Amino acid sequence: MKYLDRVILLLSIAGLLFAGYLSTYKLFTSSCALNEPCPYFLGLPACYFGFVMYLALALLSGALVFKKLSKQRALNLIIFVSALGILFAGYFTLGELPVFFEKGFGAYVLGLPTCALGLIFYVLIFCLSSYKRIKTNAASEVSD
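Request: output the structure for the sequence above.
Response:
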């Protein structure tokens, strides 16, 4: 099961790199990287918030892998942040659905809106960390 910790870390780093690219591109060019509409939240590009959430996930999953936090605490925090990410990216993905249904995969450089790609990573992280927490709880109950 330790491999799941590493998979969660790798997914978090992949999300961080993707959101970091989008955020850096937006910061230095004032336009969106993949020729998509740039959603805003609280007056800032949504990719900035995605970057912060993926940074938190990368730090927390790193703490999990390198045992800097207890397994339960790290998993609980990862689950919480990834759930926030699901709500956040899910909201913006819903806004892209009319364009997606009208134009299909060809409407986007990567086949899906960037928010939908971020959503996929958040869902994977959420599911894997939830599964790991359930298995960890079950193992601790057996040993008690």
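The radius of gyration is 17 Å.
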